[in-house]
Specification:
2 domains, alpha+beta, 263 residues
Amino acid sequence: MTEPTAPAPARLAAALARVQSALPKLERDRTVEVEKKAGGTYTYSYVTLANLTEAVLPLLAEHGLSFAALPGTGSDGKMCLRYHLLHESGEALSGEFPISGEGGIQMIGGRITYARRYCLAAIVGVAADEDDEARLADDSGPRTAQRAQPAGRRAPAENGNGRTAQRAQRQTAPPAGQPDLPGDNPAGGVQPAQHRHMHALWRELGYAGEEYRDERLNITGRILGRELDSSATLTYAEADTVIEALKDRRDKVKAQQQDGGES
């Protein structure tokens, strides 16, 4: 996130100060669990973009302020989110948040959503995330986060071979052990056979049924490192990444059950 292009003008600064004095206490409505590379987990919570905008934008409007964020090209020629805090007087506070342009439109859209939430919270002064940097310092490697589950249930995690969202971007071949099917395109969208495979794995893990739809989407999004509204937006490679992660989790659960039965 780059520095704003200029100091906040006086009237905008005064209006923002009034907004900050009246900011409500926002409930962090999503909790995730992160598995650290060195072992162990930690959890943190954050405010989703939907709840953040619902709470903040009307308050900005009351004081003559508005927030705008548009994807485009930054001053360095690379893709970014250009954000603006605007005052009715015409004064403005602007900046840029760099975004990777790699991957499909769904992946880029997920990054834009994250950047919008981050920039809005930062420029208004909202503590939208709850995180312990001391815990993060112990784990400089890749992380996979999942939504926190009730006791006795654990969400699928990053597998032991270190497959992450980067694998989804690099992969250019069909999953090992699966035949090429008509219409399969590693660079294209998720295929029906992959959907069936994922549904079968969700059933084995106890996440079948419409009541677990949000859980499945949240877990899938954490495996891939982006927000997800529907599994239909997955790419072929992303679907393979999810399948591999779910298979690894299924195998671990089965191994734990076998160990428990033999003890």
